[in-house]
Amino acid sequence: MSRYAELSNLSVSVQQIENCAFSRWYHLFHGSTPKAEIIKPVPAGFMEYLEQDGIRLPNDSNFKQSSYFQDVQETEDNEYSDWEQEENENENENGGEVMASQHDTKTEVTSMFPDLHQKLKGLFQEMGPLTPKLTWSSPKDATWILANNTLKCHEVNDVYLLLKASSHITHDLDRAFDECFDRETLKETPQTFGHELILRKWFDINPALEFRVFVKNSKIIGVSQRDLNFYDYLLPLVDTFKELIDEFIHEQVSQKFPDPSYVCDVYIPRPFQKVWLIDFNPFCRKTDSLMFSWHELITANENDIEDDYEMRLVKENNVARFAGKEHSESQVPKDVADAITNPDAIKELASKWSELLKMQQAEDSSEEE
Questions:
Q1: Between the chain's N and C termini, which has fewer beta carbons within 10 Å?
Q2: Rounded Cα gap, residues 152 and 161, in angstroms
């Protein structure tokens, strides 16, 4: 008769969550972490903007180079004469009312966080392409909203789109401390917590070479491949990866990070001589355990494992997995997905979207009056 294993308890404190905030550890590992700019505290106006429903993008007059507000250049791929006819008819009917309302709306968005907006534009000029993060999380689940399907941002509106479309960011804002046994000791609410906005200098990461390391009481108890697709060249490199990770965790990370138990993501690029620290996560169930189960990790005896921990890699090609996309549950609605392969559906969707925007702008204009 089979026996049922009791679900092991795992508690996490407010302090452990706070210790994983980017600004708490970045300065400790500056030489092993990609260059980043931390903006803290984030202005209240920007926090309010992130919490608002819908997505509105700033369009100040000094930022005309933004690709989001440039006129579409007619090509043989987008040559729809009936679209142009509808647009001309609407312009004739409404005159300049819609454009005026549109300008007012966008100006209002910018005025909620003008200093931050200018600072972000300056960072792009200084550092080039960037990738955003808010306190704990990157908006990895929202990459579908950018044309390049990555976190690579070329301008401030890319940043706003990613942050607004991400469920991970919403979790940071509203539910970061939900699983803490001592959350009643938290002086601020999740909404008033001193959040930080991080802009990292972009660099290309080969997802096959990123790994999640599970550390319990300062000892590694397991390492998992981060991207769950099959890469045949990884298996012969297991000993190399483990040696590099062992040295990095024991000689650097565990010596400096304040918690004895934690989860961290590392990146080991070719020629496999240096380990880059990407992120920290709390040692708790809310952190994705990837190729392990949390029951395995919690019940593992770190004293028995010592240096003989398991590094789990995907060992065979899974066609279904390879065909799927990570975070697909956070992506576009079905009507948008259907429109991708149907020109008529694209036309109809664009027309409806245009009408909705005009209705929203008209409502905003009437409210201001």
A1: N
A2: 12
Torsion angle, alpha carbons of 258, 264, 267, 271, to 10: 60
- Report whether CATH 3.30.470 matches the domain 204-331: yes
What phi, psi does 268 have (nearest 5°)?
-125, 90
CA distance 167 to 170: 5
Are 131 and 159 in contact by the 8 Å Cβ rule? The answer is no
Radius of gyration of the chain (CA): 24
Closest CA to 278 of 22, 18, 42, 15: 22
The DSSP code sequence of 240-297 is: HHHHHHHHHIIIIIHHHSS-SSEEEEEE--TTT---EEEEEEESSTTS--TTS-HHHH
Spacing of C-alpha 360 from chain mean position: 28
Query: Residue 179: helix, strand or coil by DSSP?
Result: coil
Mean pLDDT computed over every residue of the chain: 82
pTM for this model (two decimals): 0.77
Please give the Cα distance from 298 to 217 (Å, whole number). 11
Task: Give 57's pLDDT tier (boundaries 50, 70, 90).
Answer: confident
